[in-house]
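User: Predict Peptidase's structure from this.
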Amino acid sequence: MIGAQQVVDIVLAEARRRGRADETIVLVTDRVDAALRWANNTMTTNGESTSRTTTVISIVRRDGRAHVGSVRSSAVAPSVLMDLVVASQAAAAAAPPARDSAPALPADTAPTDWDAPSPRTGVDAFGGVADALTRGFGGRETLFGYARHVVETTFVATSTGLRRRFTQPTGSVEINAKRDGASAWAGVGTPDFVDVPTDAMLEDLATRLSWAQRSVELPAGRYETIMPPSTVADMMIYLSWTMGGRGAQEGRTALSAPGGGTRVGEKLTSLPLTLYSDPQAPGLQCTPFVAVSGSSERASVFDNGMPIDRVDWIRDGVINALAYPRAAATEFDAPVAVGADNLLMTGGTASLADMVARTERGLLLTTLWYIRTVDPSVLLLTGLTRDGVYLVEDGQVTAAVNNFRFNESPLDLLRRASEAGVSEVTLPREWGDWATRAQMPTLRIPDFHMSSVSQAQ
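Assistant:
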C-alpha cells in the first residue's frame, strides 16, 4: 500500500482539480489486527491482518446551506481514490441541506510525526499471556478465550489546511474457565500487553469456580446486589450512548425534562460520583480529536479534526452535560461537548472484598450479557447475568445461584446506589468489542431487579 499521507495528497489534489466541492475532508485509518485463541486447554489459532479505510467527505455550500457527501472504501489501490472523490462530490451535489452545518475549521500545522509510517503489531505481543496460559492449561480448569491487539492510526486532513494524526492501540484478554459444569469469566483491557495479570486472572477464576461447588436456586425478585466494575461499565456505557443533547432537547430520550428542555442540573444521586470522558486519562488515552465518517447526534463530520476535551457528563451526582457538536450547541445555546472514546467514573475507598464483607445477605454479580432497550423514555434496559452469580451471607460468598434476566435503568441504578467502591480500570463484558477503555467503581444496589429466572448456563 502507498502511505496514508500519499492518499491524503492524492485525494485533496483530485478534489481541487475537479472543483465541484467547496471543502474536502479526508480520513484515512490504517489498522493492524493480531489475535490469539485457545480452547479446551490448547492454543488453536493466531494470526495478523492489515487493512485501510479511506473516507472522502465533500461539502458543497450554496444559498447559505451546506450539502455533504461521504463515501468510504476499504480498497487500497491508488486508482480507487479518484472514484471516491467523484462519488463523494456527486453525493454532496445531490444531498439535502445538512442539519449540522458548521463553518470550516481553520488550518493547523501537521503534527511532527505526520510523515512517519503507521505503527504495527503482531502475535509476538501475546508472548507473556501465552506463557501464563500454557502453565494454566495444566490446572483443574478447562480454559477458553482469546486475546486481540489492534493498532489504528488515523489521519484527518482538510482542504482548508488542518492536519491531525493519532495512533490508538487497543487490546484485550478474555478468559472463560469451566469446571464441573460451572463457568466463570475474566477480562482485562490493555493498550500494549506489557503487564497483563494473566496469572492473577486464572487465580480469580479458580476461586469463583470453587464458590460454585455449592449451588442454590433463587426465585426472581429484588435483591441487594453488588455490581463489580465490569457490570457497572456495561450499564454506564449504554447511558453515555444516549446522552445526545439534540434528542434530549426534542423530548426523545430519558435525558429530556418533563415539559421541555433537558435534565441537566438534576441531582441523580447523593453519592459524589462523577462520570466523565477524557482523552488524556492516564492509561486510557484515546483519540483527542473528532474523526467520524458520518454525522450523528453526538458528533458531526463538520467537526472532524476538532480537539476533544474532558467532559464531566455527571458531576458530583448531578447531570452536568450532554453531547453537542458545534451546530447543535449553537442551535440550543449549549456548550460544545463531544465525548472521547473512553468512560470513567469516580468512586469511594472500599474494595470489592470490603463490600462483600459488609453484606448480610445479597448477590454478587460478575458479568452482564445481551443488554437491550426496553423503554428508551426512561432508559429501561434488560439483559442476562452470565458466568457466575453468587450468594453472599454474613459477609462470605457461600454458593453460586441460578442466572437471571434483569430489568434496570442505569439512571435509576445511580439514584438507588447506596455505596460506591474503589474506581478501577475494567473491561465491560457486553461492550468489550467496542469499548475497552473504562474505569468504574463497584456499586451496591439495595434492590436490584431480577425480573425472571434464566435457564441459561
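The CA atoms of residues 368 and 385 lie 5 Å apart.
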